[in-house]
Amino acid sequence: MSKSTTKREPSKEAVLKAARAYKAKHAVPLTVHPSGKFGRWCKKVSGVAHYFGLVDPASKDYGSKAALALYHRQREDLEAGREPAVEVAGATVKTLCDAFLFDREQKVDTGELMPRSWRQYRQCCERLVKVLGRGRAVENLRPSDFATLRAFLSKSMAASTLTVELTRVKTVFRFAYDRGMIPVPMRFGGALERPPKRLLREARNGNGDRDFTAGEVKAMVAAADPCMKCLVLLGINAAFGPTDFARVPLSAIDLDGGWITYPRHKTGVPRRAKLWPETTAAIRSYIDRHRPEPVDDKAADYAFLQADGRPWVSDRCDLVSAHARRLMQDAGVWRKGRGIYGLRRSFRTVADEVRDTPAIDLIMGHSDASMGAAYRMRIDDARLKTVATRVRTWLGKAGKIE
């Protein structure tokens, strides 16, 4: 009897090594950048890095010929400092995705888009190529194709995740029309409409509450190492999420006064929070006794670092959430559908009892589009202290905050 074998996907390290060997052997005038699933073909023009496609382990040339052809077509515009012209004629799903990801890459470089959002768009484009076909002409796509796409996505995504993914798909094809790659807007035939609200409610109900009890927060604090302890306390004290924690600079933390003032990186909205004595003590202990030597000047600006001195910031994965998940498992509080972001939900749930929405929004970094916000010039620190005290009192009922 013959044994069935499953072809294993090569590791990223192996593909990068092979692609670089191919580049050296054939004198490809592009570099292999380690970002992306298997890397990307890159070229610096006037000191700025530009990307011309993903490294393709299934191709004999690792995708270098297509990347080099794209570079030569865009070279004149790039050297002149212009945005490269979009190639309209015969646009395929693959060329559309490449053009879209190139545009979003530029937005990451200018700070208009988060690296995590770019990764999600890249994964979306990979699914489009897989389901719709890389060589399929965009103009020839029909509502039945999008119905097939939706069925494929529905098999592996919950209703809430599917809603966000369908929005990304529409964004990609809206880009195609806006950039003149297709003559008329794409017709989806209702295939990309969001799931019914009933399914979204059922999904939320199935996941249960996504916040933490005071006892669960205490369990995480007790199980955490010095760095992750700061993450948990900042999450429940100052409503920090993983990205806030990864990017907060040392200059934003006033340990003597007990304040943290730091615009939320995701939105740029100002935020300020009063730190509890326990939070201040944990941060001071980490910085004085446990913070590793930064690997470079850029890393030195960040308050919290990985064990090897590198920043937690990454354009390829959410390192903080991965470590936080292990902490939650060690503390016995992890369950599917709830992550460390639940600390922000816990903070908001308890803080709302103070009934001072403007102060809570300032702590969380939420924008306020009301007319009152347009006239409000500042929020007194006493109001922020009141919110902090209420949440600390709630947590203290579960025992002493270590």
Rg over CA atoms, rounded to whole Å, is 24 Å
Strand content: 5-15%
Number of separate strands: 6
Q: Looking at the structure, what is the overall shape?
A: globular
Order of helices and strands: HEEEHHHHHHHHHEEEHHHHHHH
Helix content: 40-55%
- Class based on secondary structure composition and strand pairing: mainly alpha
What is the domain tally? 2
Distance between the termini: 62 Å
What's the arrangement of secondary structure elements?
Layout: H1 12-26, E1 31-33, E2 40-45, E3 48-54, H2 64-79, H3 93-109, H4 115-132, H5 143-154, H6 159-178, H7 197-207, H8 214-223, H9 226-238, H10 242-247, E4 253-254, E5 259-261, E6 272-274, H11 277-290, H12 297-300, H13 319-331, H14 342-351, H15 357-364, H16 371-375, H17 381-396
Antiparallel strand pairs: 1-2, 2-3, 4-5, 5-6
Helix pairs in contact: 3-4, 4-6, 8-9, 8-13, 9-11, 9-14
